[in-house]
Amino acid sequence: MRQGGRPPPAAPDEPLRFVLDYAQARGAAWERRDDTTLLLLPDALQADLDLPEELIVTADPEAAREEGAVLLIHGHPIVDRAASAALNCADVGFSRLPWPASIPPPATELVLRARAALGVDHGKLDATGTPPVEAYLPVLRVGAMVSYSASLEDRFQEREEVWIDARTCLPLEAPMRAHVASQSLEAGIDPARPMLDSGLLAALATAHTLIEGRASARRAELSGQARAAREEELRRAATYYATALESIAARAATAPQERRGLLASQAEVTITERDRRLAEIEERFEPRHEIQPFRLHLVAVPALSMPVSVRRGDRAFPLTVTWVPGGVGFLPLRCPHCGDSSPLVAGRDRLGCRTCIPRPAVEPAPTAWRQEHPQGSSEDRASNVAARSPEPQRPVAPARSPARQGGQPPASKPRRATRPATATKGAVRHGAGDERLFKVGAKLATAFWDAAALGCRWRGKATAAHSPMSALARLYGTQGPFRAIGVPPGALPLDMVVRETQPHPTSPHTTSGLLATSAGSFFYTLRWQVAQGDPVVGEVLPHLCPDGALVAASSLPTIVARELLNPPPPRTPLDPVETQVWEETAGIMGLSFVLRCLAQWWQIRAAAGTESHAPGVMAAAIVERARARAGLRPRTPGQSTLWSPDPSSIQGAKAGIDRLIGAPDARPW
Question: Does pTM surpass 0.85?
Answer without folding.
Answer: no
